[in-house]
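2024-03-11 09:14:02 DEBUG pipeline.ingest accepted 1 chain
2024-03-11 09:14:02 DEBUG pipeline.ingest length=371
2024-03-11 09:14:03 DEBUG pipeline.predict start
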Amino acid sequence: MRTIRVKLDKRSYDIVIGTDIIPLLGKYIKKLDIGNSAYIITNTYVKERCSRGLIRELKKSGLNFKIKVIPDTEKSKSIPVLTAVINDLAKFDLKKRVFIIALGGGVVGDLSGLVASIYKRGIPYIQIPTTLLAQVDSAIGGKTAVDLKEGKNLIGAIYQPRLVLSDCCLLKSLDIRQLRAGLAEVIKYGIIKDSRLFTYLEREYRNILKLKVLALERIVRSSSLIKADIVGRDEREAKGIRTALNFGHTLAHAIEAAFSFKKYNHGEAVALGMLIALDISQSLKLINSSLNKRVESLIKKAGLPTKIESIRLNELMQAFYRDKKFSGAKNRLVLITGLGKVKIVENVPLEIIEKALKNRIKQPSVLRRAG
Protein backbone atom coordinates (compact mmCIF):
# COMPACT_ATOMS: atom_id res chain seq x y z
CA MET A 1 0.00 0.00 0.00
CA ARG A 2 1.19 3.52 -0.81
CA THR A 3 -0.12 6.83 0.54
CA ILE A 4 0.38 10.06 -1.40
CA ARG A 5 -0.46 13.41 0.18
CA VAL A 6 -2.11 16.16 -1.86
CA LYS A 7 -0.71 19.21 -0.06
CA LEU A 8 -3.30 22.00 0.06
CA ASP A 9 -2.94 23.38 3.59
CA LYS A 10 -6.22 22.81 5.44
CA ARG A 11 -7.70 21.05 2.40
CA SER A 12 -4.90 18.48 2.18
CA TYR A 13 -5.88 14.83 1.78
CA ASP A 14 -4.47 11.38 1.15
CA ILE A 15 -4.55 9.21 -1.94
CA VAL A 16 -4.31 5.62 -0.72
CA ILE A 17 -3.24 3.13 -3.39
CA GLY A 18 -3.12 -0.63 -3.02
CA THR A 19 -4.87 -3.94 -3.57
CA ASP A 20 -7.84 -5.08 -1.48
CA ILE A 21 -7.82 -1.95 0.69
CA ILE A 22 -11.57 -1.27 0.98
CA PRO A 23 -11.48 -2.81 4.50
CA LEU A 24 -9.42 0.24 5.55
CA LEU A 25 -12.27 2.63 4.76
CA GLY A 26 -13.94 2.53 8.19
CA LYS A 27 -10.68 3.47 9.88
CA TYR A 28 -10.22 6.46 7.58
CA ILE A 29 -13.82 7.66 8.01
CA LYS A 30 -13.42 7.55 11.79
CA LYS A 31 -10.09 9.37 11.62
CA LEU A 32 -11.49 12.08 9.34
CA ASP A 33 -14.61 12.52 11.52
CA ILE A 34 -16.73 13.44 8.50
CA GLY A 35 -20.08 12.05 9.62
CA ASN A 36 -22.14 8.99 10.50
CA SER A 37 -24.20 8.57 7.32
CA ALA A 38 -22.81 7.77 3.87
CA TYR A 39 -24.71 8.70 0.72
CA ILE A 40 -23.19 6.47 -1.95
CA ILE A 41 -23.50 7.59 -5.57
CA THR A 42 -22.79 4.86 -8.12
CA ASN A 43 -24.22 3.17 -11.22
CA THR A 44 -25.82 -0.23 -11.71
CA TYR A 45 -22.74 -1.89 -13.19
CA VAL A 46 -20.47 -0.77 -10.35
CA LYS A 47 -23.06 -1.50 -7.68
CA GLU A 48 -23.35 -5.10 -8.82
CA ARG A 49 -19.60 -5.71 -9.08
CA CYS A 50 -17.89 -3.45 -6.57
CA SER A 51 -20.21 -2.46 -3.74
CA ARG A 52 -20.30 -5.59 -1.56
CA GLY A 53 -17.02 -4.94 0.20
CA LEU A 54 -17.92 -1.30 0.74
CA ILE A 55 -21.32 -2.13 2.21
CA ARG A 56 -19.78 -4.75 4.46
CA GLU A 57 -17.25 -2.23 5.77
CA LEU A 58 -19.87 0.46 6.39
CA LYS A 59 -22.03 -1.98 8.34
CA LYS A 60 -19.03 -3.18 10.30
CA SER A 61 -18.23 0.43 11.22
CA GLY A 62 -21.80 1.10 12.36
CA LEU A 63 -22.49 3.73 9.69
CA ASN A 64 -25.83 4.51 8.08
CA PHE A 65 -25.83 4.51 4.31
CA LYS A 66 -27.97 4.83 1.23
CA ILE A 67 -27.08 3.91 -2.33
CA LYS A 68 -28.16 6.23 -5.13
CA VAL A 69 -27.87 4.67 -8.58
CA ILE A 70 -27.48 6.93 -11.60
CA PRO A 71 -27.37 5.88 -15.27
CA ASP A 72 -24.01 4.65 -16.52
CA THR A 73 -23.64 7.31 -19.18
CA GLU A 74 -22.17 10.74 -19.76
CA LYS A 75 -25.76 12.02 -19.73
CA SER A 76 -25.72 11.62 -15.95
CA LYS A 77 -23.49 14.68 -15.89
CA SER A 78 -26.49 16.93 -16.43
CA ILE A 79 -28.60 19.49 -14.58
CA PRO A 80 -31.66 17.17 -14.32
CA VAL A 81 -29.63 14.33 -12.76
CA LEU A 82 -27.81 16.79 -10.49
CA THR A 83 -31.13 18.15 -9.23
CA ALA A 84 -32.63 14.70 -8.73
CA VAL A 85 -29.62 13.54 -6.70
CA ILE A 86 -29.66 16.63 -4.48
CA ASN A 87 -33.38 16.22 -3.79
CA ASP A 88 -32.86 12.57 -2.85
CA LEU A 89 -29.87 13.44 -0.68
CA ALA A 90 -31.92 16.05 1.19
CA LYS A 91 -34.56 13.44 2.06
CA PHE A 92 -31.88 11.06 3.36
CA ASP A 93 -30.08 13.77 5.31
CA LEU A 94 -32.77 14.46 7.93
CA LYS A 95 -31.12 14.59 11.37
CA LYS A 96 -27.90 13.00 10.11
CA ARG A 97 -24.26 13.98 9.64
CA VAL A 98 -24.05 13.06 6.01
CA PHE A 99 -21.09 12.68 3.67
CA ILE A 100 -20.90 11.42 0.10
CA ILE A 101 -19.00 8.45 -1.30
CA ALA A 102 -18.41 8.53 -5.04
CA LEU A 103 -18.14 4.87 -6.09
CA GLY A 104 -17.51 4.73 -9.80
CA GLY A 105 -15.63 6.28 -12.68
CA GLY A 106 -15.27 9.82 -13.91
CA VAL A 107 -18.99 10.51 -14.43
CA VAL A 108 -19.89 9.40 -10.90
CA GLY A 109 -16.91 11.26 -9.43
CA ASP A 110 -17.59 14.52 -11.27
CA LEU A 111 -21.28 14.53 -10.37
CA SER A 112 -20.70 13.48 -6.75
CA GLY A 113 -18.09 16.15 -6.22
CA LEU A 114 -20.35 18.86 -7.58
CA VAL A 115 -23.25 17.69 -5.39
CA ALA A 116 -20.92 17.76 -2.36
CA SER A 117 -19.68 21.23 -3.25
CA ILE A 118 -23.11 22.88 -3.39
CA TYR A 119 -25.29 20.91 -0.96
CA LYS A 120 -25.47 22.91 2.29
CA ARG A 121 -22.66 25.04 0.83
CA GLY A 122 -20.36 22.04 1.00
CA ILE A 123 -20.25 18.64 2.69
CA PRO A 124 -17.39 16.10 2.84
CA TYR A 125 -16.96 13.49 0.14
CA ILE A 126 -14.71 10.53 -0.53
CA GLN A 127 -13.65 9.26 -3.92
CA ILE A 128 -13.47 5.48 -4.44
CA PRO A 129 -12.62 5.35 -8.15
CA THR A 130 -13.40 2.09 -9.92
CA THR A 131 -11.89 2.83 -13.34
CA LEU A 132 -8.27 3.30 -14.29
CA LEU A 133 -9.06 6.71 -15.75
CA ALA A 134 -10.59 7.86 -12.46
CA GLN A 135 -7.81 6.40 -10.32
CA VAL A 136 -5.05 8.11 -12.25
CA ASP A 137 -6.79 11.36 -13.07
CA SER A 138 -10.37 12.47 -12.49
CA ALA A 139 -10.70 11.42 -8.83
CA ILE A 140 -7.70 13.57 -7.89
CA GLY A 141 -7.61 17.35 -7.83
CA GLY A 142 -11.15 18.41 -7.04
CA LYS A 143 -12.43 19.30 -10.49
CA THR A 144 -16.17 18.63 -10.46
CA ALA A 145 -18.68 19.38 -13.18
CA VAL A 146 -21.72 18.61 -15.27
CA ASP A 147 -22.16 19.19 -18.99
CA LEU A 148 -24.42 21.42 -21.02
CA LYS A 149 -25.48 20.71 -24.59
CA GLU A 150 -23.13 23.53 -25.58
CA GLY A 151 -20.09 21.76 -24.17
CA LYS A 152 -18.44 19.51 -21.61
CA ASN A 153 -17.88 20.50 -17.94
CA LEU A 154 -19.31 24.00 -18.33
CA ILE A 155 -20.91 24.04 -14.86
CA GLY A 156 -18.60 23.01 -12.07
CA ALA A 157 -16.43 23.84 -9.10
CA ILE A 158 -13.05 22.96 -7.68
CA TYR A 159 -13.89 21.14 -4.46
CA GLN A 160 -11.43 18.70 -2.95
CA PRO A 161 -12.36 15.27 -1.58
CA ARG A 162 -11.34 14.28 1.94
CA LEU A 163 -9.86 10.99 0.75
CA VAL A 164 -9.17 9.09 -2.47
CA LEU A 165 -9.08 5.32 -2.01
CA SER A 166 -7.68 3.68 -5.15
CA ASP A 167 -8.11 -0.08 -4.80
CA CYS A 168 -6.58 -1.79 -7.82
CA CYS A 169 -8.76 -4.86 -7.17
CA LEU A 170 -11.70 -2.81 -8.41
CA LEU A 171 -10.07 -2.50 -11.82
CA LYS A 172 -10.71 -6.19 -12.45
CA SER A 173 -14.34 -5.23 -13.13
CA LEU A 174 -13.33 -3.16 -16.16
CA ASP A 175 -14.00 -4.15 -19.71
CA ILE A 176 -11.11 -3.71 -22.12
CA ARG A 177 -12.46 -0.48 -23.60
CA GLN A 178 -12.58 1.20 -20.18
CA LEU A 179 -9.10 -0.04 -19.35
CA ARG A 180 -7.71 1.39 -22.58
CA ALA A 181 -9.46 4.70 -21.89
CA GLY A 182 -7.63 4.97 -18.58
CA LEU A 183 -4.36 4.04 -20.21
CA ALA A 184 -4.71 7.11 -22.44
CA GLU A 185 -4.46 9.34 -19.36
CA VAL A 186 -1.41 7.42 -18.12
CA ILE A 187 0.23 7.94 -21.52
CA LYS A 188 -0.53 11.64 -21.11
CA TYR A 189 1.41 11.75 -17.84
CA GLY A 190 4.38 10.08 -19.50
CA ILE A 191 4.31 12.63 -22.31
CA ILE A 192 3.99 15.76 -20.19
CA LYS A 193 6.05 14.87 -17.13
CA ASP A 194 7.81 11.52 -16.92
CA SER A 195 9.78 9.98 -19.78
CA ARG A 196 10.58 6.94 -17.58
CA LEU A 197 6.87 6.26 -17.16
CA PHE A 198 6.44 6.52 -20.93
CA THR A 199 9.24 4.00 -21.48
CA TYR A 200 7.67 1.71 -18.86
CA LEU A 201 4.37 1.83 -20.75
CA GLU A 202 6.10 0.93 -23.99
CA ARG A 203 7.60 -2.11 -22.27
CA GLU A 204 4.72 -3.22 -20.05
CA TYR A 205 1.53 -2.29 -21.91
CA ARG A 206 0.65 -5.97 -22.43
CA ASN A 207 0.77 -6.69 -18.68
CA ILE A 208 -1.35 -3.62 -18.00
CA LEU A 209 -3.97 -4.76 -20.49
CA LYS A 210 -3.89 -8.19 -18.83
CA LEU A 211 -4.68 -6.49 -15.46
CA LYS A 212 -1.45 -7.61 -13.81
CA VAL A 213 -1.63 -6.14 -10.32
CA LEU A 214 2.00 -5.00 -10.02
CA ALA A 215 1.81 -3.16 -13.33
CA LEU A 216 -1.50 -1.54 -12.40
CA GLU A 217 -0.22 -0.40 -9.02
CA ARG A 218 2.89 1.05 -10.64
CA ILE A 219 1.03 3.18 -13.17
CA VAL A 220 -1.62 4.32 -10.66
CA ARG A 221 1.11 5.29 -8.20
CA SER A 222 3.25 7.11 -10.79
CA SER A 223 0.29 8.99 -12.26
CA SER A 224 -1.09 9.92 -8.83
CA LEU A 225 2.28 11.29 -7.73
CA ILE A 226 2.38 13.56 -10.78
CA LYS A 227 -1.21 14.72 -10.37
CA ALA A 228 -0.84 15.32 -6.62
CA ASP A 229 2.31 17.37 -7.11
CA ILE A 230 0.78 19.54 -9.82
CA VAL A 231 -2.49 20.11 -7.94
CA GLY A 232 -0.58 20.94 -4.77
CA ARG A 233 1.38 23.65 -6.58
CA ASP A 234 -1.48 25.08 -8.65
CA GLU A 235 -4.89 23.99 -7.37
CA ARG A 236 -6.98 26.45 -9.35
CA GLU A 237 -4.83 26.61 -12.49
CA ALA A 238 -3.84 30.19 -11.63
CA LYS A 239 -0.08 29.75 -12.15
CA GLY A 240 -0.14 27.84 -15.42
CA ILE A 241 1.32 24.71 -13.81
CA ARG A 242 -1.93 22.72 -13.75
CA THR A 243 -2.63 23.72 -17.35
CA ALA A 244 -0.17 21.03 -18.44
CA LEU A 245 -2.74 18.42 -17.42
CA ASN A 246 -4.94 19.67 -20.26
CA PHE A 247 -2.60 18.20 -22.87
CA GLY A 248 -4.86 16.73 -25.54
CA HIS A 249 -8.00 17.65 -23.61
CA THR A 250 -9.09 20.84 -25.37
CA LEU A 251 -9.18 18.96 -28.65
CA ALA A 252 -10.62 15.86 -26.95
CA HIS A 253 -13.55 17.84 -25.58
CA ALA A 254 -14.22 19.20 -29.07
CA ILE A 255 -14.26 15.66 -30.46
CA GLU A 256 -16.59 14.42 -27.71
CA ALA A 257 -18.98 17.34 -28.18
CA ALA A 258 -18.96 17.11 -31.99
CA PHE A 259 -20.17 13.51 -31.70
CA SER A 260 -22.70 14.46 -28.98
CA PHE A 261 -20.72 12.39 -26.42
CA LYS A 262 -21.87 9.17 -28.13
CA LYS A 263 -19.00 7.98 -30.34
CA TYR A 264 -15.92 8.23 -28.16
CA ASN A 265 -15.42 7.83 -24.43
CA HIS A 266 -13.19 10.37 -22.71
CA GLY A 267 -9.99 8.34 -22.90
CA GLU A 268 -10.44 7.59 -26.59
CA ALA A 269 -11.03 11.27 -27.28
CA VAL A 270 -7.94 12.18 -25.23
CA ALA A 271 -5.84 9.77 -27.30
CA LEU A 272 -7.03 11.50 -30.46
CA GLY A 273 -6.59 14.93 -28.89
CA MET A 274 -3.00 14.14 -27.92
CA LEU A 275 -2.18 13.01 -31.45
CA ILE A 276 -3.65 16.21 -32.88
CA ALA A 277 -1.66 18.25 -30.34
CA LEU A 278 1.47 16.35 -31.39
CA ASP A 279 0.74 17.08 -35.05
CA ILE A 280 0.36 20.77 -34.19
CA SER A 281 3.58 20.68 -32.15
CA GLN A 282 5.36 19.20 -35.15
CA SER A 283 3.88 21.79 -37.53
CA LEU A 284 5.20 24.53 -35.22
CA LYS A 285 8.61 22.78 -35.25
CA LEU A 286 8.51 22.14 -31.51
CA ILE A 287 9.14 18.39 -31.98
CA ASN A 288 10.34 16.13 -34.76
CA SER A 289 8.43 13.39 -36.52
CA SER A 290 10.21 10.57 -34.67
CA LEU A 291 8.67 11.52 -31.32
CA ASN A 292 5.28 11.90 -32.97
CA LYS A 293 5.55 8.40 -34.46
CA ARG A 294 6.74 6.94 -31.14
CA VAL A 295 3.69 8.24 -29.29
CA GLU A 296 1.33 7.13 -32.05
CA SER A 297 2.87 3.66 -31.93
CA LEU A 298 2.18 3.35 -28.18
CA ILE A 299 -1.38 4.61 -28.60
CA LYS A 300 -1.96 1.97 -31.29
CA LYS A 301 -0.50 -0.78 -29.08
CA ALA A 302 -2.83 0.32 -26.29
CA GLY A 303 -5.75 -0.30 -28.65
CA LEU A 304 -6.79 3.34 -28.77
CA PRO A 305 -7.98 5.17 -31.90
CA THR A 306 -5.56 7.17 -34.01
CA LYS A 307 -8.09 8.45 -36.55
CA ILE A 308 -11.43 10.27 -36.10
CA GLU A 309 -14.46 8.73 -37.75
CA SER A 310 -15.88 10.64 -40.69
CA ILE A 311 -17.23 14.04 -39.64
CA ARG A 312 -17.41 17.50 -41.12
CA LEU A 313 -14.37 19.56 -40.24
CA ASN A 314 -16.47 22.61 -39.48
CA GLU A 315 -18.39 20.64 -36.81
CA LEU A 316 -15.13 19.91 -35.01
CA MET A 317 -14.02 23.52 -35.31
CA GLN A 318 -17.30 24.86 -33.95
CA ALA A 319 -16.96 22.56 -30.93
CA PHE A 320 -13.36 23.68 -30.53
CA TYR A 321 -14.41 27.36 -30.43
CA ARG A 322 -16.79 26.66 -27.53
CA ASP A 323 -14.09 25.26 -25.24
CA LYS A 324 -13.96 27.02 -21.86
CA LYS A 325 -10.15 27.19 -21.98
CA PHE A 326 -10.18 29.96 -24.57
CA SER A 327 -8.63 33.20 -23.33
CA GLY A 328 -10.96 35.84 -24.75
CA ALA A 329 -10.92 35.37 -28.51
CA LYS A 330 -7.61 33.50 -28.42
CA ASN A 331 -7.26 29.75 -28.46
CA ARG A 332 -4.82 28.18 -26.01
CA LEU A 333 -3.27 24.75 -26.44
CA VAL A 334 -0.90 22.64 -24.40
CA LEU A 335 1.83 21.46 -26.77
CA ILE A 336 5.11 19.66 -26.16
CA THR A 337 8.76 20.29 -26.99
CA GLY A 338 9.89 16.81 -25.96
CA LEU A 339 8.95 13.98 -23.60
CA GLY A 340 8.30 15.56 -20.22
CA LYS A 341 8.40 19.10 -21.62
CA VAL A 342 5.26 21.15 -22.24
CA LYS A 343 4.65 24.57 -23.71
CA ILE A 344 1.45 26.60 -23.49
CA VAL A 345 0.81 28.28 -26.83
CA GLU A 346 -1.85 30.91 -27.41
CA ASN A 347 -3.38 31.96 -30.71
CA VAL A 348 -2.22 28.96 -32.75
CA PRO A 349 -3.02 29.78 -36.39
CA LEU A 350 -6.35 28.24 -37.34
CA GLU A 351 -4.96 26.82 -40.56
CA ILE A 352 -2.50 24.71 -38.54
CA ILE A 353 -5.29 23.45 -36.25
CA GLU A 354 -7.51 22.69 -39.23
CA LYS A 355 -4.71 20.85 -41.01
CA ALA A 356 -4.03 18.70 -37.94
CA LEU A 357 -7.73 17.90 -37.54
CA LYS A 358 -8.15 17.16 -41.23
CA ASN A 359 -5.22 14.75 -41.17
CA ARG A 360 -6.84 12.81 -38.32
CA ILE A 361 -10.28 12.47 -39.93
CA LYS A 362 -10.71 9.17 -41.75
CA GLN A 363 -12.98 10.41 -44.53
CA PRO A 364 -13.46 14.18 -44.36
CA SER A 365 -16.45 15.35 -46.36
CA VAL A 366 -16.41 19.12 -45.87
CA LEU A 367 -13.09 20.89 -45.46
CA ARG A 368 -13.75 24.54 -44.77
CA ARG A 369 -13.10 26.92 -41.95
CA ALA A 370 -15.92 27.44 -39.45
CA GLY A 371 -16.90 30.93 -38.61
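2024-03-11 09:14:41 DEBUG pipeline.report The chain is about 45% helix and 20% strand.
2024-03-11 09:14:41 DEBUG pipeline.predict end
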